[in-house]
Amino acid sequence: MELKRRVFRTRLSAEDPLVRDHRVHGVRILPGVTFLDLILRMARTCGLDPSQVGLRRILFTKPIAVEAGQERWVRLVLEPKSDGAQVQVLSARHGATEEATADWEENARAELVVEPSPAPPS
Hints:
By secondary structure, the protein is mostly beta strands. The chain has helices at 17-20, 32-45; strands spanning 6-13, 23-24, 27-28, 53-60, 71-81, 84-93, 105-114. A hairpin with a 2-residue loop joins strand 5 (71-81) and strand 6 (84-93).
C-alpha cells in the first residue's frame, strides 16, 4: 500500500480524562503512551493493519501540558518514506492556525514501518 502525506488533528481539553487524571507535579500532562495510540489509530485510518505496523526511533521531545480551563490542538503529520513514513506529533494552543507554524511545537516523532505478517505455521 502506498502511503500519502496526511495530517490529522484533534482538540485536547484540560477536562479530558486523559489529562485531567494524569498529573505530574500537579500539571495536567498527556500520557506518553497516548502518543503511540494516536499514531496507531492514524495508521488504521490510512488503511494499514495495526498488527503489521511497527514504530522505530520513537522520540518524546516535549510533554503536552494543558492548564485548567484551556485547550490545545494536537496534530499528527505523516510523511511517506520508501520503507514507511515519518510521523511527527505537534501541539499548539487552541486558536492556532495551520499556517502559523511558530505556534506549533514538536512533542514526539517516530518512524512508522509496515511489516508483512509472518506466514502461518505449516
